[in-house]
Design brief:
- By secondary structure, the protein is α/β, with parallel strands linked by helices.
- A five-stranded mixed sheet has the order 7-8-6-5-9, with helices on one face. Strands 2-1-3-4 form a four-stranded parallel sheet.
- Helix 1 crosses helix 3.
């Protein structure tokens, strides 16, 4: 059976230095989670209104500068663009914005088009958990390993390619070796706390198994 085509997230570039970074980060996270979306940054000068047919979602990083440019270029279609608030000094916000978008796409919830994400208000209740969040189990094994234990990530619904990419990311973050086999990730040493922290940053829900 042929793999269905991915939906396109078009990131409209009006001069931001972060469009490629946002697209790369989105594609990495979407791939790990098996999300059928692919981001592409494209200069607004190369996009005409008629080219937007078939695009699953339109995104611009800086509402203050991008919304007027989109309105001039696309007319009424500018209303379907989702605008973020990533300004010149806000590079550190990209990961959080990407994870927020991925969570909404996984859970089926969408921010209204044209609406910028509002800053969090202190002491407000946490938003509802994502309905389709992926839960990964993390444990440790020492049996048959001559005292050299490994941290394991298992019971994952991820594809083999996504699992290998996630394994490579965890090895890099933990600064150690490891492998991916039989549908699970093994990281050398007792790195459960670090692995759990990194998986949580990536938007996964984690269940610790064992001591």
């Amino acid at each position: 059976m042929a793999t269905p085509p991915k939906k396109k997230l078009l990131i409209i570039d009006t001069g931001s230095a972060f469009c490629q970074q946002a697209a790369d980060r989105f594609n990495s996270i979407a791939g790990m989670m098996g999300l059928p979306w692919e981001a592409e940054p494209k200069s607004i000068s190369l996009v005409a209104a008629e080219n937007l047919q078939g695009v699953g979602k339109l995104l611009a990083l800086n509402q203050a500068s991008d919304q007027p440019a989109c309105a001039e270029r696309f007319g009424d279609l500018a209303r379907v663009v989702e605008y973020w608030g990533i300004g010149p000094g806000d590079q550190g916000q990209i990961d959080q914005q990407v994870m927020d978008l991925v969570a909404r796409l996984l859970g089926g919830g969408e921010r209204p088009a044209g609406e910028k994400k509002k800053p969090a208000v202190p002491n407000t209740p946490a938003k509802e958990p994502v309905k389709k969040a992926i839960v990964l189990k993390v444990g440790r094994e020492t049996a048959g390993r001559h005292g050299k234990g490994v941290t394991t990530v298992f019971d994952t619904p991820l594809s083999e390619s996504a699992l290998k990419e996630l394994g490579a990311t965890l090895k890099s973050k933990c600064g150690t070796g490891g492998t991916v086999k039989d549908g699970r990730i093994e990281i050398q040493g007792d790195n459960r706390e670090r692995v759990i922290a990194e998986l949580t940053k990536l938007g996964f829900q984690v269940k610790r198994v064992g001591g």
